[in-house]
Amino acid sequence: MMTVNDVSDAEFSVFCPGVLEVLSIGKGDLRLSVGDSDEDRERARALIEEMLRKGYSIFVETDDGPERVVAFNPRRMTYLIVDAPAAAASRVRPRKATRKKSGRRSVPVSGSRATAVGRTAGG
Amino acid sequence: MADDVETVEGWSHEEARYFYDKLSDRLSDWQGVPVPLGEELPLRLHDRHPLARLLRANDVEMRVVVGGPDVDDPDERLLNEWYDGARNRDVLIFRRGNGRAFALTHPRAPDRSMERLTMWLNTLGASDAWDLDAEYRAREKLRGLLSDRQWRHYDLTGSFLETSPRSQLTYLFRRLRPTVVLTPRWKWWRRHGETMRVLAVLCLHPIGYYDRSWGGCMVPSDDVIAHLLSMRADEAYFWRKANQHEPWRPEAGL
């Protein structure tokens, strides 16, 4: 019979594939799943790099809502997003006129949910 | 069935959509290949799209205006055009094949209602490029992004409101129309209670759009998703990428 200590020592490994949805003309919403195999990761790496090169906008879901991907780290397989200050903090006027340089934050592709939108033509 | 109407190439619109969808699969172009709808509805693609030059070449450079261009002169070209606000008319400058230029004026309706009607009808025409199943899938995705009340508004009226926590601006997202940005900040705000004013009308289509219409290359709800995600993720980016229309212009759709 399993005791409380046994439960605390147990390890669970659950793999969540990354999901990249692409807004598509003919399909409306094309869903690509990024698996854990080397082949899948290599395919996803090439795909994301190609999309960013072609000017797609990629929006990845985070705890703070969707954020726009500004770069991609192919080695670590992470999206890079701008680490924007919190909404409440941004409304507070800084005492000094110096502008703080915003940093970047990484979001792993694995387990993420992102939407890619083609380059815009205005309207 | 309306969808069985033959296009210029002899295909039905359904066949054309199927062809371009398969072509995008063959090219591994995930965003899809835009469906051309002939010279009546020329496509305006973003500058770096591989088909932008090809489709631009098919644009009609000559306008049919009463007493205007000579259709038998293949070298006659439209040189320039502008809107004359003082007389509410378009001015068009043509050059004939022999090098001589001439001007034409084209009066507009005082309230520009006829231009709105033209855009409305062209938008109906653009629907030939959209696949119904693609629209249903886009609506499902959009539904997952909205609150129940927003979805109810969108489903019943084709529009919904969302206020940005960053800027406190309220956005009115609309199907087949540009997004209207409203602000409560104006000088009579306190005096008249909770009223808002239009700050801007933002138009943005991924990939491209059909000229003189409110329709984009993608199905209508995909365009709304693009607006919504851009605003939520990076508001400054949304404003930077979108074209701003004056609220009184027909393109604004107000």
Summarize the helices and strands and which ones pair or pack:
The complex is a heterodimer of chains A (about 120) and B (about 250).
Chain A lengths: L3 H6 L8 E7 L3 E7 L3 H16 L3 E6 L2 E9 L4 E6 L3 H5 L11 E6 L4 E5 L6
Chain B lengths: L12 H14 L16 E3 L6 H6 L19 E8 L4 E7 L5 E7 L5 H14 L5 H14 L2 H10 L1 E5 L6 E5 L4 E5 L5 H4 L4 E7 L4 E3 L9 H14 L1 H7 L1 E3 L9
Antiparallel strand pairs in B: 1-9, 2-3, 3-4, 5-6, 6-7, 7-8, 8-10
Number of domains of chain A: 1
Number of helices of chain B: 8
Major sheet: arrangement of strands of chain B = 5-6-7-8-10
Q: Which overall shape of chain B is indicated by the principal axes computed on the Cα atoms?
A: globular
> What oligomeric arrangement do these chains adopt?
heterodimer
Structural class of chain A: alpha+beta
Mean pLDDT over the full residue set of chain B: 83
Describe the structure.
The complex is a heterodimer of chains A (123) and B (254). Chain A is α+β, with helices and mostly antiparallel strands and 123 residues long. Chain A has one domain. Chain A is 22% helix and 37% strand. Chain A has helices at residues 4-9, 38-53, 87-91; strands spanning 18-24, 28-34, 57-62, 65-73, 78-83, 103-108, 113-117. Chain A has a seven-stranded mixed beta sheet, covered by helices on one side. In chain A, β4 and β5 (78-83) form a beta hairpin. Chain A is globular and about 40 Å long. The termini of chain A are far apart. Chain B has 254 residues and is α+β, with helices and mostly antiparallel strands. Helices cover 33% and strands 21% of the residues of chain B. Chain B has helices at 13-26, 52-57, 113-126, 132-145, 148-157, 189-192, 220-233, 235-241, and strands at residues 43-45, 77-84, 89-95, 101-107, 159-163, 170-174, 179-183, 197-203, 208-210, 243-245. The model of chain B is unreliable at 57-67 (pLDDT under 50). The interface between A and B is large, with 34 and 53 residues.
